[in-house]
Amino acid sequence: MGQETCNGFMKKPFKPKLFKHLEGLKNKAVFSDCGKYRYLLDIRKSEQKSGKRVCAIMLNPSVADETRADKSVQFLEKLIFEKASQYFKGVVCLSIVNLFAFIQTRDFEGKPEQVGPENDHYLETAISAADIVLIAWGKSASYPERKAQVLNTIGRYPRKTLLVTKIHPSRGRYADFIDVFQP
Hints:
Elements: E1 4-6, E2 9-11, E3 25-31, E4 38-45, E5 52-58, H1 71-82, E6 91-98, H2 119-129, E7 132-135, H3 144-155, E8 161-165, E9 178-180
Parallel strand pairs: 5-6, 5-7, 7-8
Antiparallel strand pairs: 1-2, 3-4, 4-6, 8-9
């Protein structure tokens, strides 16, 4: 039970690799009532009250929550809170939001209903509160309409520092990973 067959062979359900959040961080996740959408993952240095905020906008969430990270989330935590990147000095909070709030770990389709009923509210709130907006949805040409909508939202806040990842965080290396975003 709980396994699919694929061409007559048993296929084990996919279980994403889970990671721990870095030590010394306080995490909060906001999910839809049905649990199918994650709207926000807020990660902050628990010992610091004031400092810069980063809003990272990724494609769609995996299984990361308050107690566990996925590969992309842990990569961003290390990049922003541990590595000596010039862009992230003084950052105390990382707010992760997504183009699509639908939680899926494989074969993501990016359908309009996967945006999530409250996602645009959480995107705009995170962008408006941030000092730095990090576009971290990767280099794929997929979902141009949705990306344009979110870039339009970012454009309503012209005084933000805008950065972009050169590739998706799950495939990243820390050296030479960030560029200044040129709209």
